[in-house]
Specification:
Elements: E1 3-5, H1 11-14, E2 18-20, H2 28-49, E3 58-63, E4 67-72, E5 77-82, H3 99-103, H4 107-116, H5 126-143, H6 147-162, H7 171-183, H8 187-210, H9 219-240, H10 247-256
Antiparallel strand pairs: 1-2, 3-4, 4-5
Length: 260
């Protein structure tokens, strides 16, 4: 996964924290594919924390020690190859590339991410793997335009974050219970959350089993599902370091609250 940091070789040129990723692969195309996937995951992480963030892969991707590929995702192609100097970057058409505007992060946002605990996600653990899967589905939920598809993607986030891989029955009850005990601090709040998730799954069932389409006027249900997906995923990230990345322990601690 990419790393949000203010301690890397670009700091002197950018003057802000930035996202970097290190990739080892047999060829440059594979390396670039891996890098783009990691940047996509990181961008979804930023979108998880700030709804107004609308990223695109734009700036520089360093391939080995030889070339810098200027990548513009809006054009879907690499349009320039130059030598690895960070001064006066230009594309193949001679247009100057302003690196600073392409990759900088605000210090405030970086501090928010560090407080959330994203720096611990670089270590491969069961929780970090679940988080990456959740971020993929969360990003899809934000990107698709159809409300029904949004709902399915957001509920997939809830299932990825709140059930073990071998739990394939009573999903509605499991997810509703665990979401309520994870996010709620008192009885009334837990009842409300449980009822909300049950209603979301009722609407999901109509989409999956009846082929029903969610209309624009019913988008509040979709927004509710997205809100719970965001809160659950952020809670999972926060607990990652304390639990040493143990996802089974994360689930067990939630279930134990039922008997507290």
């Amino acid at each position: 996964m990419g790393v949000v940091t203010n301690k890397n070789i670009y700091q002197d040129y950018i003057g802000k924290p930035c996202i970097i990723t290190y990739v080892k692969a047999g060829d440059s195309e594979k390396a670039r594919s891996i890098a783009l996937n990691r940047f996509s995951i990181c961008f979804n992480l930023l979108r998880l924390c700030t709804h107004s963030f609308k990223p695109s892969v734009k700036g520089v991707i360093v391939l080995g020690n030889r070339d810098l590929i200027i990548w513009n995702n809006s054009r879907k192609n690499a349009y320039g190859t130059i030598k690895p100097s960070l001064d006066n970057l230009c594309d193949s058409e001679g247009n100057k590339v302003i690196l600073k505007s392409a990759v900088k992060l605000s210090n405030l946002l970086c501090a928010k991410l560090e407080k959330l605990g994203v720096q611990y996600l670089s270590t491969v653990t069961p929780i970090s793997s679940v988080v990456k899967d959740c971020l993929y589905w969360f990003g899809l939920g934000l990107d698709v335009t159809m409300e029904s598809a949004k709902l399915l993607n957001f509920t997939t986030v809830l299932e990825c974050a709140l059930k073990k891989s071998d739990e394939n029955t009573e999903l509605k009850q499991r997810i509703s219970d665990r979401c309520a005990f994870l996010l709620g601090d008192d009885y009334e709040t837990r009842v409300k959350i449980h009822n909300d998730i049950s209603f979301i799954y009722k609407e999901r069932s109509k989409v999956v089993h009846q082929g029903s389409m969610i209309k624009d006027e019913d988008r509040n249900t979709v927004n509710l599902a997205g809100s719970y997906a965001q809160r659950v995923l952020m809670k999972l990230i926060q607990e990652n370091n304390r639990l040493n990345g143990d996802f089974s322990k994360f689930i067990c601690e939630i279930d134990e609250k039922k008997f507290a």
